[in-house]
Write a structure and sequence with these properties.
With 134 residues, this protein is an alpha+beta fold. The chain has 2 helices and 9 strands, in the order H-H-E-E-E-E-E-E-E-E-E.
Length: 134
């Protein structure tokens, strides 16, 4: 004996046997997708702001858990540090990379190889970086 669902077709859909969905193929990690990933992470300070530590003696690099290779770089006033990221964005303060200012809300893509990050003389800089594609 089968049930009659004619008066409630939406229940009939729920009662139907599940059809397996086609296999989901992984999406390739492109430069644009990685930049968007960094921008989304920058827009969610609840995931990283409590990790920021201000050390007056040296720049600090702090991994952001469960972020796919992102880290915070906290640069004391006037200090320079070497960075080997693929993407970067400024979160707070002022900083330059290779003499060009980092801008909040803008993601900068880097070519292979490292580059210097310099904090402003006026205060700490907090930037968010993402590892390069392999």
């Amino acid at each position: 004996m089968s049930a009659d669902f004619s008066v409630a077709p939406e229940i009939a859909q729920l009662a139907a046997p599940l059809v397996p969905s086609p296999a989901v193929r992984p999406v390739a990690a492109t430069a644009g997708r990685r930049a968007a990933e960094l921008a989304r992470l920058a827009a969610r300070p609840t995931e990283w702001w409590d990790l920021v530590r201000f050390d007056p003696l040296a720049p600090a690099r702090v991994a952001v858990p469960a972020s796919g290779g992102a880290w915070l770089l906290i640069t004391p006033p006037g200090m320079v540090t070497h960075c080997e990221c693929g993407w970067a964005t400024l979160l707070a303060g002022e900083a330059t990379e290779d003499g060009r200012p980092l801008r909040p809300g803008r993601v900068r893509l880097h070519a292979a190889g490292g580059h210097p990050v310099r904090g402003s003389e006026h205060g700490y800089a907090v930037s968010l970086h993402l590892t390069a594609l392999r």
